Task: inverse folding
């Protein structure tokens, strides 16, 4: 027999009892006088606010993705109080040009074609390549640098339509051994009218950061990736801990966990290999052939349906090292809501660097804002 | 869309307002708690999000509301701290902020080295702080945006750690 409580209620009761022994008593936080009236006043004021003063957040589905990046979004809220720059904020029509769709070997710009049957074997090739790599450094700090871009919308343009520009962003994620997470963001110049970068994505390194924030990292801790199983079946269960959320979009869910891992942690070669094997076991991926990524690196590409209809997502990997190079989201059905004609690249992330570094290589702690 | 379907937002508001106020009152006095919840609701309204189409989406939105209110709470506490520092030269620097209620949640953020809480991990402390304030597993999962199973697991671990601490205490006595 075990003394483990058999259900949550018993567990809660027992722990509250233990806390009481330590002098922690429940406080009275329930409804106070005047709160109901205040709520009604606030609600009326909010509903009366002008609808055109409201922003537009177009992509709020993709439940798991929202969860994984929620950590960073929460940090942004902590830092700013208001989110002023975010992907696909602002009202339509969007007045920015999206980057050109990558030229993919085996498919057209709508991502039609490719081979679903080839995907598992190609994933396994990546697994084999990843398994033979040397660990990326041995320092205690995990440093991952990701290039992406944001749609920045100026919503304070009076009666004029909101002005939107696409801005490349290089974000350095530093996961420190004490569990804190530092995010240093540098924004480049907006894309030109053809949607091309006006400066290389990686050239912002010497620029002063636009934001430099440190906050408590995800609850899983800095060694989360190291604790993951190298058995792909166990690993998959560890990554998709709420399968009910992913019932119809398992490929997208699994892929979003995979990109979350790669964009925040430095994976050991064996873990990186297991990740690819987990993807190989999952239906829903199509092999798109060879291409070159946003940083002009040779890559192979895989597509899968996004959680939202009319969108396809792409994973890009280095066929030689088995490294994940990045991901993209493509609108394959024109959207009046977004003011975009398909095909349109609506998001991309490219891993610039993923390496364990020493504390000496971490930028001066005095320059970060700690939350 | 809430842009054309305010009743959906109203329903959300009526469900979440008391829950968010209760959450904010853990760290702030009642009036300030009402202020940050008002800001939170305004933030969510201004995001112009789609109405949640199912239970999962609704839960996500509730988690988002908790994250936003937590951000506003911290902003307010930081502002209070800044104000206190600014006035420290003309007032008693040790004076406590009248809006700031010391409680277990504060220990989570700024653990007292001598406290028994310092023996627990940050995650354990976070969950225990919520449990101590009367939250059940399901609601803690919404607040921390993870599955109830994950919270149960953390509570099991926290329970073991608490028992260890109590055991050490009794053997010290």
Result:
């Amino acid at each position: 027999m075990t003394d483990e409580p058999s259900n949550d209620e018993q567990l809660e009761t027992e722990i509250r009892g233990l806390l009481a022994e330590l002098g922690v008593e429940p406080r009275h936080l329930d409804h106070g006088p005047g709160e109901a009236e205040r709520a009604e006043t606030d609600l009326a004021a909010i509903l009366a606010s002008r609808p055109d003063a409201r922003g537009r957040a177009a992509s709020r589905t993709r439940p798991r993705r929202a969860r994984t990046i929620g950590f960073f979004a929460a940090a942004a809220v902590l830092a700013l109080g208001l989110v002023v720059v975010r992907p696909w904020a602002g009202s339509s029509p969007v007045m920015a040009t999206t980057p050109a769709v990558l030229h993919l070997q085996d498919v057209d710009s709508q991502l039609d074609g490719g081979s679903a049957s080839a995907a598992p074997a190609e994933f396994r090739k990546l697994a084999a390549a990843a398994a033979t790599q040397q660990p990326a450094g041995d320092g205690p700090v995990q440093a991952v640098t990701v290039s992406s871009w944001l749609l920045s919308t100026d919503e304070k343009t009076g009666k004029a339509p909101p002005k939107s520009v696409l801005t490349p962003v290089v974000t350095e994620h530093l996961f420190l051994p004490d569990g804190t997470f530092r995010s240093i963001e540098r924004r480049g110049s907006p894309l030109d009218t053809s949607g091309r970068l006006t400066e290389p994505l990686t050239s912002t390194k010497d620029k002063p950061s636009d934001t430099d924030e440190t906050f408590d990292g995800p609850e899983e801790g800095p060694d989360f990736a190291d604790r993951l199983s190298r058995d792909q079946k166990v690993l998959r269960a560890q990554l998709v801990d709420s399968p009910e959320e992913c019932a119809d979009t398992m490929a997208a869910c699994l892929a979003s966990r995979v990109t979350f891992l790669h964009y925040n942690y430095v994976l050991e070669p064996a873990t990186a290999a297991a990740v690819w094997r987990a993807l190989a076991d999952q239906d829903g991926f199509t092999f798109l052939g060879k291409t070159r990524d946003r940083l002009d690196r040779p890559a192979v590409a895989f597509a899968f349906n996004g959680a939202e209809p009319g969108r396809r997502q792409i994973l890009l990997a280095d066929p030689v090292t088995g490294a994940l190079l990045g991901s993209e989201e493509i609108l394959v059905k024109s959207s009046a809501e977004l003011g975009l004609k398909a095909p349109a690249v609506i998001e991309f992330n490219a891993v610039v660097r993923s390496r364990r570094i020493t504390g000496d290589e971490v930028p001066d702690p005095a320059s970060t804002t700690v939350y | 869309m809430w842009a054309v379907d305010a009743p959906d937002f109203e329903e959300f508001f009526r469900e979440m307002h008391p829950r968010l106020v209760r959450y904010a009152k853990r760290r702030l006095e009642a009036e300030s708690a009402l202020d940050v919840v008002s800001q939170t609701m305004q933030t969510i309204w201004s995001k112009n999000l789609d109405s949640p189409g199912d239970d999962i989406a609704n839960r996500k939105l509730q988690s988002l509301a908790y994250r936003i209110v937590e951000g506003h709470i911290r902003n307010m506490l930081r502002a209070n701290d800044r104000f206190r520092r600014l006035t420290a030269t003309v007032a008693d620097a040790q004076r406590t902020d009248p809006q700031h209620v010391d409680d277990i949640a504060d220990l989570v953020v700024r653990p007292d080295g001598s406290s028994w809480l310092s023996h627990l991990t940050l995650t354990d402390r976070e969950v225990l702080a919520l449990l101590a304030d009367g939250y059940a597993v399901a609601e803690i999962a919404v607040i921390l945006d993870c599955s109830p199973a994950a919270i149960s697991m953390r509570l099991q671990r926290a329970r073991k750690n608490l028992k260890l601490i109590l055991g050490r205490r009794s053997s010290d006595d």
Q: What stands out?
A: The CA atoms of residues 112 and 118 of chain B lie 7 Å apart. DSSP finds seven helices and no strands in chain B. The radius of gyration of chain B is 19 Å. Chain B has a mean pLDDT of 74.
